[in-house]
């Protein structure tokens, strides 16, 4: 994949580029948004930009891809690329935008590294960039073909259901005069939701579909994100909570996401979630209950309290329909008798040989669960995860 000459140059310059990648991505976004302010207004998540998490995720993905090319020159990190491509497809990213990114990214590299960016170094890192970009373009093209192209569709809210003090479920259907069929989805996938904010911005966020496939409806469960010391309040989540009611119309993408059930009737499964990460797991459990999955299913969930456990009734009801399911709950406070107090700890949780695991929740939770699963003999290739927001796993955050 990477030419021998470029591989040697990238290997030699990785320490310098890696040490400066944070500053490079900061200058990249500054230059990109100065030239194209509409991208920050209508495409990029302004909250993630303000918090710096998108810069961390971009830096991590570029560094991880370059390291993989150098260490494994005959393969691609397809799991990482597929996850990124699904997110891009849900946003409607177009191939020509990769040339724009290249222009501003390499201007930032030259600005930060100065004379160290010789023609040879520039050519080697350009090769890395286009190997990654063209791989993403190819995956995204396939996703668009499968989903009928990158387009937005109007859906009407037919029901709004408060789940907890900070989570609301919205059920939506296509407009009555829209004759197009509704494409099905796979349990665990998400849709992008685009809303018009008071300042005129058209911000986009992804929300997991929290009901089983097979219905003409879409169901999303949205957690209102408050401000904290480092992150502004969630613009879209707070807008949806404050302003969207039955009868209102939202713009949705087609479903995307690679955290999807891949099971046979004899595959033991473990579905681990924390907080609002429960949403794709409830959809998976609903699907398993509908299809009569008979192998063992271990359900793990951690939350602040039972009152904060969104979709708690559905979570337990779908698990109860499975013939061989076990449920393990942890609450930081007010834990009932059938749950433990504190953070999730799989030490005493039996895990069957051959288990395939699906994780969704805050990054520290997923890292801890993944480590315990590996200690229990689960193959790393059988542990799949979804990060809400920028994927900072690659960035080491």
Written account of the structure:
This protein has 397 residues and is of the alpha/beta class. The chain is 43% helix and 19% strand. It is built from 11 helices and 12 strands. It has helices at residues 4-35, 37-42, 46-51, 53-71, 78-91, 96-113, 119-147, 235-243, 278-291, 312-320, 363-375; strands at residues 153-164, 167-174, 190-196, 202-208, 218-223, 249-252, 269-274, 297-303, 325-331, 340-341, 356-360, 383-386. The strands form 2 sheets. A 6-stranded antiparallel beta sheet has the order 4-3-6-1-2-5, sandwiched between helices. Strands 10-9-8-7-11-12 form a 6-stranded parallel beta sheet, with helices on both faces. Helix 9 runs parallel beside helix 10 (312-320). The radius of gyration is 22 Å and the shape is globular.
β-strand amount: 15-25%
Average pLDDT taken over every residue: 93
Which class do the helix and strand fractions yield? alpha/beta
- State the distance separating the first and last CA atoms: 29 Å
Question: What's the alpha carbon Rg, rounded to whole Å?
Answer: 22 Å
The tally of helices reads 11
Order of helices and strands: HHHHHHHEEEEEHEEHEHEEEHE
Please state the overall shape, judged from the principal axes of the Cα atoms.
globular
Strand segment count: 12
Main sheet characteristics: 6 strands, antiparallel
Q: Strand order within the widest sheet? A: 4-3-6-1-2-5
Helix content: 40-55%
Which segments are poorly predicted (pLDDT under 50) over 5 or more consecutive residues?
none
